[in-house]
Amino acid sequence: MLIVDSQIHLWQNGKMSSHHRQIPTYSVDDALAEMASAGVDCAVIHPPSALGEAVNVQAVEAVRAYPDKFCILGHFDLQSPDREQIVARWRERPGMLGFRFTFNQPHQKSWWTDGTLDWFWPACEKAGLRVGLLASGKNIAALGKIAERHPGLRLHIDHIGRGGGGGGVKDDAVFADLDEMLALARLPNVAVKLSGAPSYSSAPYPYRNIHDYLRRIVDAFGPDRCFWGTDITRMPCSYRQCVTMFTEELPWLKGRDLERVMGAAVVDWLGWKRPVAA
C-alpha cells in the first residue's frame, strides 16, 4: 500500500509558529528519516507561508533530489503585479502541482469574500492547478461558494476543516460545526485532508474519541476525496502512530478504501505523475 503524507513542512534557519517544533531547521533529510521510520513512502511539501517565498526554493530542491518522494503545493504574493503570469507559469517549477494558502494574516481574512481573489480561482482552474486552503468556521461556506462558481477547480480543505491547531480547541468542541463541512461533500471538486487528526483529541493514542468524526467525513466525501496526512512537526505522537491510527485502529476503513485514503487518492487528486524510484 502506497502511503503518502498529504502535508509536511520543510524549513531552514527559520522560526515556525509556536505549535510546531521549535527548531531552526527541518530539512529534507530530517523528513526522509522520519518517513522511513513510519513506513511513509512520499509526501506533499507545503512551504510554510509565514517564512516567505524562499521556502519554495527549498521545496524545489527536495523534489529535484527526490522526485519520487515529494511534490509541492507552494505559495506566492497574491498581490504581485505579475500574479497572473506567475500562476500561468507555475508548473515550470519542478514539483509544483498547485498552491496552499492559509489567509491567516489580518489583511488576508477578507479575501475569502471581498473579491480580491476573483482573478485567482479562474486562473488556477484554467491552468489545472490544485488549491489547498486552511478553511474553518465561516470560511467553509465561502470555500463552497468558490467551488460552485468554478466547477473545474479542485479545492481541498486542510486539517479536517478544523483550523491549523493553534487554537487549542479539541474533542467534541472542535467538531461542533462539522455538518457545515460535510454539506460540501455534494460538490465533486471539493476534498478534505485528514491531516493533523491526533492534534484534535485530548485523549491518548489512538484518539478514539474522534474516530466517529473521521468516519462521518469519509462516509460523506468518500475515500477518493479524503487524504491521510500529518503536519508531522506539530503532532503529539510519533510519525508511526499517525500512520497506525488509520491503518490499524479504524476497523471500518479497510481494503481499497484504506488504500485510497492513505495515499492513492491524493496522488490522483493532485495529478502527480510520480516517477518510479530508481
**Unreliable segments (pLDDT under 50, ≥5 consecutive)?**
none
> Considering DSSP H and I runs of 4 or more, what fraction of the residues is helical?
25-40%
Radius of gyration: 17 Å
List SSEs in N-to-C order.
EHEHEHEHEHEHHEHEHH
Name the shape in a single word: globular
Number of helices: 10
Strand content: 5-15%
Strand order of the largest sheet: 1-2-3-4-5-6-7-8
Annotation, overall tally of beta strands = 8
Task: Explain how this protein is built.
- This protein is an alpha/beta fold and 278 residues long.
- Helix content is 33%, strand content 13%.
- The protein is built from ten helices and eight strands.
- The protein has helices at residues 28-38, 54-65, 83-88, 120-127, 139-149, 171-174, 178-182, 211-221, 239-247, 255-270; strands spanning 4-8, 42-45, 70-74, 96-101, 130-133, 155-157, 190-195, 226-229.
- Helix 1 packs across helix 9 (239-247).
